[in-house]
## 1
Amino acid sequence: MTVTIESTARTAPTSAMTGLLDEMANFTDVANRPDLGDRLARAWARVSDPILRIVVTGQSGQGMSALVDAIAGVPVTADGSQRGLPVMVTTSDTAYSRQSSSGSGMSRMEVGITPPLLAQGVVLIDTPGIYGADTAAAATVLELAAGADAVLFVSDASQEYTAPEIEFLAQLRQLCPTVLGVGTKIDLYARWTDIQDANRAHLDNAGLGIPLLPVSALLARTAHAEGDRELAVESGVPQLVDFVRGHVIAGADARQRGAIADEVFAAADQLMMTHQAELRALCDPANGGELVAELQRAVAASKRLRAQSARWQLVLGDGIVEVMAEVEHDLRHRLRQVVREAEADIMKLDPAKRWEQFELWLREKIARSVQASFVLANTRAGELADRVAQVFAADGVIMLPRLGIDEVGDALDSVASLEALETRKANLIQRLINALRGSYGGLLMVGVLTSVGGLALLNPWSIGAGVLLGGYTFYEDRKARLAARQAEAKTAVARLLDDVLFQMGDESRLRLREVHRTVRDHFAAIAEEMDESIEAALGAAQQAHHAHTAQRETRLAQLQATLARLGQLKARASALAS
């Protein structure tokens, strides 16, 4: 369930950013630079949709939905309806549309409401709880966290964080810059402060600087119904809301303002380069030929930057191969460890007695390995983009592309189930028959030997031998059947892991190739823009070099005015970013 909390509280900064982009777009239109205009239009679209996404996750039964209700200020039912509130169902978010058909069983809906708390344009994504072998939900949460502005990890005050929860928090922290631990149900547990101290110690030992906030959704709901402010403060929900406002929303606004300022700076600098080249040619006609030659050399260098042999292209090509190899090796290593653990577990006990439970355990182990591989791929993709950006432009700031390795939640759907064991445990009658066969052989063999000495076929010696060999046959049959089941179980595990490695290796390569294309196209577009700007500067300088004296004065005034206005726009962008 996705609860959308809307407000006009962020209208002022949004208007400032869109206004700045509109003014910059006017300059690109006059300069006939549709490439720069398209880039500004994409930035304008991002600004006009200032929704922040906060993922709410945790183990099942920890009070996540109650927490979402408390933050929203009103209860929201499963179908998103609430009497007296406007309901708006939207499918405009492609990430949600993909997830709804991913096969993970997670259906979500955006519901537009106007609550008294957190009216800041925030989307709270209430995900299904995670427990046991429900690893599809965990994988989906990681996918959502990679594109979220913040994650609220919910755990009630009944017990401290477990090792799997700490591991999951570490993965979330790698994917999302802001992760907050929320301790719920503090009204039910008097020693919740001890639990919070223990959780803080666990996080410190794991090197995770994650804030912890205690809350009570029940107290918040009661305070909302009775209008009791003191009880509301005691619930801890207002403090949580203030944290989100002060850190998540403010931080996202600052990052967005900085990104918009970078877009304005990039467009303004490219236009100013053209105008300054023309201005130099007009101010110093005698050196116009030298300026034209200088710009021609710059055009040649720019074309080399766009070529396949450009250094940034080589760094990207080599880097993506290295990332693919590292991710595949990491997944192989993790799955090999899973195989070792599975085989050791199979050899301890009879697998036929607990095959279904074993499959759940094995799938959980596999899913954890896949999740870790997903986190590693995202991390290495971001590092590669940074390296390419540094090589692409050692001077100045280059906007990085938005990377995402999406839809890991359904990555294991195509993997077959663990094969059923054909070598079943023999029933008592079958085992008794086998034992009788062994005892009959012993009875007959010893009876024949003793009959040579004058004893009857059935004598104490032959009967004893029959009992002994019957018991031995009974034991060996049981041992052989157990060994056969264990061998069959190992084979089934090996086949399943081989299928997982094949499917996930292919999925990983596909997603990393998409990252490769995204980074390549991003920097290729920037290189093309730079090439266009330099060629425009060359054309303007050539035209200015041959301009008549009467035209120079008029054009000089126009260029100086345009450069001054562009400088003012850059100053406004700088002020907006700060």
## 2
Amino acid sequence: MRKPVSRLLTAALSTMLGVGVAVAGATTSAHARAQAPDRTAAAASAAATSDFQQVTLAKGPDQVGEPMGLAVLPDGSALHSSRDGTVYYTTLDGLTEVAAKLSVYTHDEDGLQTLAIDPHFAKNHWVYAYYAPKLDTPMTDAPENGTAADFAPYKGYNQLSRFTFTDGKLDLSSEKKIMRVDTDRGQCCHVAGDMHFDGDGNLLLSTGDDSNPFESDGYAPIDRRPDRNPVFDNERSTANTNDLRGKLLRIKVHDNGTYTVPDGNLFPKGTPKTRPEIYAMGFRNPFRFNVDKKTGVIYLADYGPDASSANPKRGPENTVEYNRITKPGFFGWPYCIGNNTPYVQYDFATGESGQPFDCAHPVNDAPLNTGLKDLPPAQPAWIWNHYAGNPLFPQLGGEGAPMGGPVYHYDSALKSQVKFPESYDGKFFAYEFGAHWIKPIASDSSGKIQSIDTLTNGNDWARLVEPIDTEFGPDGSLYVLDYGSAWFGGSLDAGLYKIEYAPGNKAPTAAIATDTTSGKNPLTVKFDGTGSTDPENDTLTYAWDFDNDGKTDSTSATPSFTYTANGQYHAKLTVSDPSGRTGVTAVLVTVGNSAPVLKFSEPPNGLTFKDGDQVAWKIDATDPDGTPVDCSKVQVSYSLGHDMHSHNLSQATGCSGTFSMTTAGHTDSDDFYAILSASYTDTSPTAGVPDLTGTTQIVLQPKGRQAEFYRTQSGVQTSSVAGAQGGKAVTSIDNGDWIEFDPYDLQGVSKIDFRAASSGAGGTIEVRTDAPDGPLAGTATVGDTSGAFTTVSAPVTDPGGTHKLYFVFKGGSGDLFSLDSFTMS
């Protein structure tokens, strides 16, 4: 059972891992690939997932930052964005450069969201960006309660702009500001922000509801109390016909940067209390959508709230949606969700519940609504799912982070070795950010689902962590931008990939490890290419170009190279198998500046917390070049992770401070954890050499946790059990079985209470560190409880430091007991 905490990387970024682009034989250019023989048609009816390969174009924080959006260019190169405002340009040779750095506001989830290229890019070179301009917004958290004057400094907007891209650079001076979407800043969450053009050349933009979901217990955030920050009332935005948030917008952008509204949107132009740009509304966080340009159908995925179970006084359990949009409409949020399951009218001042909302006749009578009171009827989702799964769509499993990917159209005339086969023609490629799968879905013209297949489950040949954007390229391969495992930047396993159809012999994958990637001149770097792999386990040969001058500098698997001139260099490795198929990767080496090194000296990684705790933090930041660190530029954030997603709750600046910990409405039945992240960008001591950023990240654990949220296990199962918190428990426990959690620091913990049930002799729970047979920290005894869950305690001794925590089960033969949860005190 894979849990995200185990995937958060806390390794220092001084070691850079690169994995590179595979190239078929010697055909390294887009033109050469276009002339390759078409192997696809013959195998179109029998494509197997083993016939695909994953090819890496860019990898690691210095090549993808905190990945957000992707736009594939006509030549197969790609632009991709980082939330901090960086736009990267990656070629098919696996070389990545910074194309631009926009000045953006980055509190919570704001920043640079996504990119799109103009339908006529080959002629005009226009690129569109949706981002949060810095403005003069305070970087502090906006107050939760107050007056309009208290909230006014946090009024802002997100900007849709167009730029010109030439010679690998985005010209920021060419910016055409097209449209603004007003927002409330300083509170989490839901920016969304995806862009695509339809077949008629109209630009579609999805926007999030810009609302805080954490004070509504995982149900509809419709808090109308007059002294509350407006972010707690979703009716002001997504259900407001006179507001652009929580919408799918459709406009026609003109050459001069202005726009008009095409006919056929939800509200005819001139309708009072409406915005004509709205094509569809009633969305929570429509993070990814796509347009089938051939049919005009829009596939839009919408993230849902986190309620772990339905409540007759509040509304349904957590629900996410895939919407198949063929005409304008209202899609329910915050009144209805999924198959038009209604939420319940709720008074946050009194705690009293009213009647369920009427999905057929939704009414927005909220005080902050500036639009129409009577809304169009809510449209049910095409596909809906829950964290526990939906028996109507069993192929999807349980999920909470849906993404609307592209529709593939097979082109028999396209001469490409790597294009997807005809068996995928017309299929919508849904994917899942947290569950990391990609599933092609076939449906007929009315939307009736014909099949849901699996291209990859993310743990097979594809090795995906958290795919955040996808797009088919001009060669018919699928590009995937992967967020990686470390929230809010600095992830070594974030990357940009191509998924190619490659039956038969596969190309090798190049990988580079280094002992350093930055430092003073002269800089000696030890390179290691032995992590390169070949699917057929063929022997590989190595060719290194350390300074990107086109010449081979070494053929060793583990060479060293000394850089004697300041600057930045792409060190490129090409690996070849005996058939001539190659893989390429590169790392960026900076000479003349050393990346800062950051570490949390307080709190320890894995410290436990509860709601309301005040956690002091301290950052040790050093610059290896000897330049004093400016603590005013150290940025620290506190985020709450839940299942496979995370929300940034608070930000601060400095080398020390305190965060007030909150579970943000989550209970012990939810799989949540805290993430503290820090970053610092230095000032380069060498002219012409760029500044560098150092990052670090730690995880804090809740004092109470469900046993089924283990990281790894041996021998046990997770089952639905009556009386268990959250409805599930760890079962089928035999002597010697164990479950593991990571990381944990037992500072301040003297006892662990276990909630267990046994219908027999029971057994013991040993608390051990680092291994199932590691040092013993405590023991709890479970007796015969007649099948009822009972609390048993284990006094524990803090071993000091951060460890993996193992609960090892001992006893006689057979099923010993069931374990529901544990609480530390």
## 3
Amino acid sequence: MLKRMGIALLASASVIAGAQAVRAQSLAVTPAETLERQGLTVMVDQNQFSPIFFDEKNAGLQIVLHGERIATDGAVRLNRTPEQWDPVPAFISRTRGTEPNQVVVRSTYKDVDLGYRVKVTAEGDGFRIAVDLDKPLPAALAGKAGFNLDFLPTSYFGKTYLMDSAPGLFPRHATGPMRKDGSGDPMPLAAGGKSITLSPEDPLTRVTITSDAGALELYDARNRAQNGWFVVRSLIAAGAKENAVVWHVRPNVVKDWVRAPVVSFNQAGYTPGRSKVALIETDPHGPAPAEAELVRLAADGTRQSVLRSRVTPRGRWMRYDYAAFDFSQVREPGVYAISYGGQVTNPFRIAPDAYDRIWQTSLDTFIAEQMDHVGIREQYRVWSAPSHLDDARQAPANHVHFDGYKMGPTLDSPFKPGEHIPGLDVGGFQDAGDYDIQTPQNAAVVRDLAWGRELYGLDWDETSVDEAARAVEIRKPDGQQDALQQIRHGVLQLLAQYKVFGHAIVGIIDPVQRQYAHLGDAGSQTDNLTYDASLGVTERRGGSSGAQDDRWAFTTDLPANNLAVAGALAAASRALADSDPTMAAEAWDAAKTLWSRQQKGSVKAGDGRDDSGSPWSAEGANVGATVEMLITSKGDRVYADRLRALMPVVAKSFEWVGASAIRALPFMDAKYRAALVPLVRQAKAKLDADLAKNPFGVPISEANWAGSHQVVAFGSNMYLMHKAFPEIVGTEYTLNAIDYVLGRHPANNLSLVSTVGTASKLIGYGHNRADYGFIPGGLVPGVLIVKPDFPELKTDWPFLWFENEYTVATTSAYILAANAAIAATRETR
């Protein structure tokens, strides 16, 4: 926490002075079955390993010390330094133990016949971990299975450790040592001791672990994978059963430690006439001053008090208390900061043009950097050479990919498994920090940008795109609107799929895990040569090679995907009508065919990936596609009648399809509008009740992926409702959404859009995450609720994808929300 200068207010000097003093206070089990004391939380499998991504570094036993989650994945593991898809235990149950302040978790590895329980018991000023096996280890697991606890590298970089009395240094960069047996496994940094102390010099991160039976080992798992943590481990001895591992864990807890307040606000600032409310997040154990002050910064660096007023309590949410500081009455342009509890935040602006440049970098840099099948350059920097020119090979039948893609018994393709599919090496966007093309997400980008052009203009030209030369240059205007060029780039891939298969596909992705885990230049992920089975692995001939690095195409014909693509192509045909009438006509013809095929019988759910259960993925996709067809046709009766027939779906799923339903209003009759009025009122009433549960005024996800996409979609959708029904819906929802993603959220006050605002997320999960870098304009998922009640957004560790992974459709949704917020502020000048 003390490293968060400009992010959260610093802890007071008195806390630092008393850092060595520890109060004799024991952990106690809470109703949520965590173990708690002031300054320390022990979570005991409140968060489980993922059934798809396995090890997400948010499972098993976890430690929150002085407000930071410093340890995770406390569990029996079958590897010294497990990687993401190595085996993980299945959670069975969590119960109260027979001893006071004890929690017991049962878990199993069914495939290897290993069942066990972990007993976590308060003990002195720390806790004890005891592992009991249902029966002794199978012979195949002897020397492999052990109890692991992973510690966050950035909490320990540059700090020391003691294995018994032997000193060591936590390395900033993984440098070995590695085993010389060809396994690729790391050697321990330290081994053989019965006690280890992490960072003895730092009272805020010091943890001592003592083992009763068996030696301790310390590993740097980053030697196997950049997203690895420091691992403390004890092997389970052959024949052991009861108390197979017993650890005594003593996290140092600073006496009377109190988490510093977080004053959160919009890091891009505020326009003069809009509402301006900062939120203050405080530790219930500490003081919460009743007043805050707005100060104005003069040219000479002095601060002028502009407004001092009492804060308004907003109640408890999760584990913190909240209060609001309203400075809406201040309208004078200038540079301001907020003073609270003796500390002053980083500065922000009040200015008429505060939001004029909050979305452009998302379009001209982030979305450009995610473009597939082209080379991307930004002045001296090369983001990527032309990529994936060997796309694609047919994925096999009856296959579940490790990233969630699924292929059933039917390929829905004229190609045989493993066969090269010509024509797919054009256009599209790499979905996220990995390098796949997810068709539904690509369709969402195309539709979002088409909506952005129609609703808000999106007039911006900072990027050159030469599709024929496969060359993109950022910060080099070429006289063509960037949004139109990106729409065209997305359509190239969507139409390519349609031309090859006659339908949309699930997507295109790397075939093996080692290739999937590639970090850096997308152009070097494959050799860009089409696979030829007649060649040896290292042979090359002409445009072919024997390397099986070509991405796989998952080709299942699913109605939800066809409808998403039909809607995107219909919207694109409107956007491209003037600049590329040929492509516009082609997109419209494909949209009509794809849409028509899905109007007979019920619409099958699923998009062929792990998110196939989304409530909008089936019938809701039909509403969205039908509205796009209606708009493009300028009210054709076929689409109007179909939309009327879909009104039960609109009513049932208005939360998901309401924005599309509202966009249809100019092309429908008064009866249609009248039918939407009660739906808008009902949605607003439900929404207001839900939003009252948190102090931020936006829907906050409590799932295993943080919810910034949900927030920006909420912001743009509510503005469409406001424009259509201003007597029912105001602009405050949209402004709350932009405030949230630009800094007014839990945990810290960073803007979630990299480089947008004074202080923003500058370590993200993108293609360059191994460099602890960022991609300008990308929107990260944001604040995760680590169950049961811990809001988290790591500022310095990029490898938690559920908090840090940029995705292209989330960022295009942000472009819409940002423009909606700009429009909303124009109503409040």
